[in-house]
């Protein structure tokens, strides 16, 4: 609340007390700030008939205090969201506020062997309520690849580890099957199943996936003749491809696309299948699945995408599975953590918009707008080099209006924004390739 007191005879005030709205006279009139704001203390403020704001005490208010404020992981911004990406185990710390979050969990992919490793489980959680507190985030590691042998009892590729957050868990991928006459020729079960290894005695089945997180690995397709090709590991979107005639190892199952980061990214592709003798190696699934190799070690699954490791052939090692990732996002309120202050300077008002105690925008006593410049701010200067400059700025979006004004006479060329990558940068280019002008830019978002 703002208390208005000592009202001059020519002042207007707002709401009850005294003689009613707009009528001079009366004291201690109360004004309610209704935009989720809570004032710290009481200020005295009136607006005179000349339009002056007269303030006798600083007023500071927290705006939208209920919005989430949090730390942990790598923080980026896109499309009105604050995004925390955890590539390693850490803590998501909600320091103030509450609200809803979306979470993507990708588990660690499995190691390959003869067959491709299964991708880590893919799990999406939306609109989950959260309040202040410390929430551990565990990132699943990728499973190790295994050596391709025909020895009874030798292991398949190792399973990936689970990724967890709160009550949610994405299951690590199932290891790629080995060759030989043991059950290790069968792919391991997991978030997505490992492929079935190459085998002369019959069909080796792929491992099963977890319902809603991934798919089964591909079998060896009953390819019992040399070079004994193996199946591809399962992915988050599709089963691993079975091995086929002509010594063709199965491709890894495709991963699944998600835009929680503001861009469409594929995660959790299965590893490609190898075999025993020289084969035509399978390709890893879209989303970080490792390619199989013939006569060399299999390719590892992509880190922090949960891809399965690629398979290999006799005497070589399947690729290691890729580590998982956890990504958390929530709506960024445009005035989150904002504070405002009104100061009296010679009878005129200054409006000061702050965040974390740092001034962002001021309106001075003469009505002039002052906007803070710097890294990832809405306004700044850039100097052209040979007619072009890339300005790194996380605030730029696909819809940003970017205003440009030359500050020096570096050349007679005119300037345009010729490229942008939302949340990353934009490019200023002059019509003159020798332009070295200093250019002021201002980013404004339309409503």
Helical residues, percent = under 10%
Q: Give the overall pLDDT as a whole number.
A: 83
Q: What is the topology, as strand order, of the major beta sheet?
A: 4-7-20-21-22-23
Amino- and carboxy-terminal Cα gap: 29 Å
Count structural domains. Answer: 3
Shape annotation: elongated
Query: Can you count the helices?
Result: 0
What does this structure look like?
With 447 residues, the chain is mostly beta strands. It has three domains: 2-64 and 335-371, no CATH class; 68-332, no CATH class; 379-444, no CATH class. 0% of the residues lie in helices and 32% in strands. It contains no helices and 29 strands. The chain has strands at 2-4, 11-12, 29-31, 38-40, 45-48, 53-55, 60-62, 69-71, 74-78, 81-86, 90-96, 99-106, 122-130, 133-138, 163-165, 168-170, 256-258, 265-267, 325-331, 338-345, 348-355, 358-363, 369-371, 379-383, 388-392, 401-406, 415-421, 425-430, 438-444. Strands 4-7-20-21-22-23 form a six-stranded antiparallel β-sheet, with no helix packed on it. A hairpin with a 2-residue loop joins β20 (338-345) and β21. The protein is elongated, with a radius of gyration of 31 Å. The two termini are 29 Å apart. The model is unreliable at 1-65, 334-340 and 344-349 (pLDDT under 50).
């Amino acid at each position: 609340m703002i208390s208005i007191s000592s009202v001059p005879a020519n002042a207007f005030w707002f709401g009850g007390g005294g003689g009613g709205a707009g009528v001079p006279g009366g004291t201690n009139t109360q004004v309610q700030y209704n935009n989720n704001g809570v004032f710290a203390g009481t200020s005295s403020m009136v607006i005179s008939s000349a339009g002056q704001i007269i303030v006798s005490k600083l007023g500071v208010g927290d705006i939208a205090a209920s919005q989430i404020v949090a730390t942990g992981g790598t923080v980026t911004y896109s499309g009105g969201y604050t995004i925390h990406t955890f590539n390693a185990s850490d803590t998501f710390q909600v320091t103030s506020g509450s609200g809803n979050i979306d979470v993507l969990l990708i588990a660690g992919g499995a190691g390959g062997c003869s067959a491709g490793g299964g991708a880590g489980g893919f799990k999406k959680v939306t609109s989950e309520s959260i309040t202040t507190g410390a929430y551990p985030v565990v990132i699943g590691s990728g499973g190790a690849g295994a050596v391709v042998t025909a020895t009874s009892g030798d292991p398949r590729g190792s399973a990936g580890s689970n990724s967890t957050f709160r009550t949610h868990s994405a299951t690590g991928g199932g290891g790629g099957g080995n060759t030989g006459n043991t059950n290790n020729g069968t792919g391991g079960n997991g978030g997505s199943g490992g492929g079935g290894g190459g085998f002369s005695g019959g069909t080796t089945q792929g491992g099963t996936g977890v319902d809603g997180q991934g798919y089964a690995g591909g079998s060896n397709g009953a390819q019992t003749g040399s070079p004994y090709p193996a199946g591809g590991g399962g992915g988050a979107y599709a089963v691993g491809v079975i091995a086929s005639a002509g010594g063709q190892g199965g491709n890894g199952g495709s991963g699944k696309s998600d835009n929680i980061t503001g861009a469409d990214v594929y995660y959790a592709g299965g590893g490609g299948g190898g075999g025993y003798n020289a084969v035509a190696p399978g390709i890893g699934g879209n989303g970080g699945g490792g390619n199989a190799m013939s006569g060399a070690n299999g390719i590892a699954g992509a880190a922090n995408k949960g891809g399965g490791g690629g398979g290999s052939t006799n005497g070589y090692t399947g690729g290691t599975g890729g580590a998982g990732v956890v990504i958390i996002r929530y709506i960024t309120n445009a005035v989150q953590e904002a504070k405002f202050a009104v100061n009296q300077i010679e009878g005129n008002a200054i409006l000061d918009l702050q965040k974390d105690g740092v001034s962002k925008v001021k309106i001075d006593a003469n009505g002039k707008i002052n906007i803070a410049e710097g890294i990832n701010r809405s306004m700044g200067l850039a100097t052209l080099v040979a007619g072009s400059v890339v300005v790194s700025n996380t605030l730029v979006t696909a819809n940003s209006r970017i205003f440009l004004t030359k500050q020096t006479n570096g050349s007679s060329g005119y300037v345009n924004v010729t490229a942008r990558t939302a949340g990353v940068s934009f490019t200023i280019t002059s019509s003159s390739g020798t332009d070295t002008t200093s250019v002021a830019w201002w980013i404004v978002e339309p409503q």
